[in-house]
Amino acid sequence: MSDSEARSFTIHVPATSANIGPGFDVVGLSLSLHVTLTVTISPPTSGSPASLPIITHSGEGASEVPLSPWKNLTTRVALYVLRCHNIRSFPSNLSIHVNNEIPFGRGLGSSGAAVVAGVLLGNELGRLNLPIGRMLDFALMVERHPDNVTAALIGGFVGSYLRELDRDAMEASQVPLSEVLPEYPPNAGEDWGLHPPVPPTGIGHYVRFGWSDSIKAVTIIPRFELSTAKARGVLPKQYSREDLVFNMQRLAVLTTALGQTPPDPELTYEAMKDRVHQPYRKPLIPGLLEITSNITPSSHPGLLGICLSGAGPTILALATGGFEAIADDASAIFRKEGVEVDWKLLEIGGASIVEQNR
Ligand SMILES: Nc1ncnc2c1ncn2[C@@H]1O[C@H](COP(=O)(O)OP(=O)(O)OP(=O)(O)O)[C@@H](O)[C@H]1O
Ligand SMILES: N[C@@H](CCO)C(=O)O
């Protein structure tokens, strides 16, 4: 298809729940809520000046998300990918409709999904044909903990690490975010387009674990936002050996236990406990401790384990049944603390996909 023809494609990126208890910054699970971009590029009309992309947005975040392509996270990331391939602007006559099912700032990976959507958008607009690993490099230059973006891109229950790079590559992967996503439009005369910080190759490695089809995700979603930055700000810089061993023992068991059929509630409940992030986040999420300690497989048959979803405030319960009782009882504890919630029963989702429409 030539660039003078109309093009349309759709990008679907799933929500994710990171950590799953002990796997802080390591594991993520894709969920059946999506951000969907419907992208249309009309053929250029001769003589008409270059036009900026038109963004419309429906669903979650509609009242707060910036619609300027210079400010919107997804289009800024797409432009970063394009600039790294010597393409300095969006095509003319580009319109993007975003329909978003992922609530902002709740621990369901909305920012990771927006970043992955941006990488996929840049890849399609530039017809770059980037392999998955390279797309992950771009996503990791923006969102620097790999758990959400890797699970959103790959789909399923995914573990990842950031590689030990050589010194130059390490420095390149750690340039300030303000250089990766500069303020647009640039000041007059600023040479912004020519030298973007290109990601080193192979920043992250990942693996998809097995998943038992019988397991669903009950998400209990408070009606308040907690930014990831704030929830990371309360974490200590150092941990005791006991706490690290506690988490590593559980994570090693959890990554296989959730793939077993039937899953073993006694094994998984204990394996979803954490000492690295949840204890420090308790003051930010009223009810967290009571929910995770009072809702157990013996009080709630069908429950496998319960934890904070990502940086919170959403609670994630993995279960094979008894979904409503788990959600009702967790909601009641939140309400006692004055927190209103919504809950959703979600499937474990697939990977991000791009569909060509015509
Ligand atoms: N579809 C989107 N389009 C543009 N910006 C978005 C979109 N989704 C999320 N964002 C931006 O990301 C911010 C939320 O990011 P944050 O990292 O605080 O929470 P989260 O990603 O929802 O949670 P977590 O990382 O714990 O799973 C929003 O306030 C908004 O600025
Ligand atoms: N691992 C991250 C996930 C949030 O995006 C955290 O818990 O801060």
From TrEMBL:
Keywords, ordered alphabetically: Amino-acid biosynthesis, ATP-binding, Kinase, Nucleotide-binding, Threonine biosynthesis, Transferase
Gene3D superfamilies linked: 3.30.230.10, GHMP kinase, C-terminal domain
Family matches, as SUPFAM superfamilies: GHMP Kinase, C-terminal domain, Ribosomal protein S5 domain 2-like
All copies of domain GHMP kinase N-terminal, residue ranges: 72-156
Any one GO molecular-function label of the UniProt entry: ATP binding
Protein family: Belongs to the GHMP kinase family. Homoserine kinase subfamily.
E.C. number(s) listed in UniProt: 2.7.1.39
Pathway: Amino-acid biosynthesis; L-threonine biosynthesis; L-threonine from L-aspartate: step 4/5
Name of protein: Homoserine kinase
Enzyme class: transferase
GO biological process: threonine biosynthetic process
Entry keyword annotation includes ATP-binding: yes
Substrates-to-products reaction catalysed: L-homoserine + ATP = O-phospho-L-homoserine + ADP + H(+)
Domain of life of the source: Eukaryota
Pfam families referenced in this protein's UniProt entry, alphabetically: GHMP_kinases_N
